Prior knowledge:
Blueprint (H helix, E strand, L loop, with lengths): L5 E4 L12 E2 H14 L3 E3 L14 E3 L12 E6 L12 E5 L2 H10 L14 H4 L10 E4 L5 H8 L5 E3 L3 E2 L2 H9 L4 E3 L2 H9 L4 E5 L9 H9 L8 E2 L6 H10 L7 H14 L10
Parallel strand pairs: 1-3, 1-4, 4-5, 5-6, 7-8, 7-10, 10-11, 11-12
Antiparallel strand pairs: 2-9
Amino acid sequence: MSAKTIRLYWWSEIYIQKKERENYGDLLGKYLVEKITGRKVSWLRANRFYIKNWWRPVYVTIGSILEHIGSHCIVWGSGMSHRDAQIARATFTAVRGPLSRKRILEIGYDCPEVYGDPALLLPLYLEDHQTKTYELGIIPHINDYKIVQSMAGNSPTLCIIDFLTNEIEETTRQILSCKRIISSSLHGIIVAHAYNIPAVQVKFSNAIFGDGVKYHDYLLSVGLETYDPLLIENQFDSDYWMDHVDKHKYKLPDQLTIKNLQDGLMKACPFLSGEDER
């Protein structure tokens, strides 16, 4: 295995926003690439020119970041934040779902019919050994966290999970300690589904960037129909939301569908091709 670092772009709360912690969903890309390859990752901007771009690509994986890419990028499982996203030409090996591919084809680029958010691969690299100690996990988008803290309060049956973190494994263990999940974070839903935990999208505010296409793109990729999330305001009734998840028609995809997406992603995985060894 080459000792070279892999050049990777993700939306970084640390490098871009100058925060001390990353967004769990975005940081999953780095975590998984390092697990898959056994190599270290270095962050750099996807749409900035570097001399090394002539012979070494920049990889783009987990995140709604297709709007950020450049022609030297290799895309594996990324999605978009808006349906009318302006996307540069790149090498596309897989995208999050059919809506991302449709948009790329509309613009005039080639894109294989290979779908899946790479976060679905997490169970292959981090096993579930957790006891289910919470009846309900609440995963707010990082922009919703303070709202949820004040709304939900403290309860021994609830686990409010902070996705502003540098600890992928610890945060994942918190997800795995829950019997069911409601989430305004896309990757709260995806990771729960990957581990066969029922999860449903909800809405706590209008503070999440994008037009919601990322949720629909993912749902369609796993064979679920799209739906509009319910808005949670002011008061939080945990019994109501547990019942909401239990009765929701699209709370969990078929695990064979997840397995097929995992297989397709690994077959399309560009890090295993030696592309960046040149």
